[in-house]
């Protein structure tokens, strides 16, 4: 199986290959799983954005909740039963998201880590089509998106494919399953602040 080491508390950063932007993530163990806090600034279609996100996962890397706040004032607070059913924090069900276990945020290299760590794919193994809760930063409306992951080299190289075949990329990852390079989209940069 393509398992990863126990995740230590750590930080990571990515820059977009084109344009100006940055994603900074702090993540690590929490009492009931893992907690990820991140900030993304960038632009899409000439429109700048800034968001802060908080993702809570259980010990198996299934997403429990997403809180997303934009500098524009928009926000999302959604919860999962970790079996593919979602609802707003106030309890209203989000049936359009049924079947999704993972979150995918526009402008984020980090969110690929969620299915990569959760699936523990063996070399040559394919996930099949996965439903994702995808949040584009222009509409700020969570939608269901479909993706496929294949383990090319256990613990170090994965192929991401949009299920509609509109995009694919080979993603090298580090010992924690964090993307090192996302060809044409993002590249990892140092967090060294010494």
Automatic annotation (TrEMBL):
<dbReference type="InterPro" id="IPR009467">
    <property type="entry name" value="Glycolipid-bd_prot_put"/>
</dbReference>
<dbReference type="Pfam" id="PF06475">
    <property type="entry name" value="Glycolipid_bind"/>
</dbReference>
<protein>
    <recommendedName>
        <fullName>Transcriptional regulator</fullName>
    </recommendedName>
</protein>
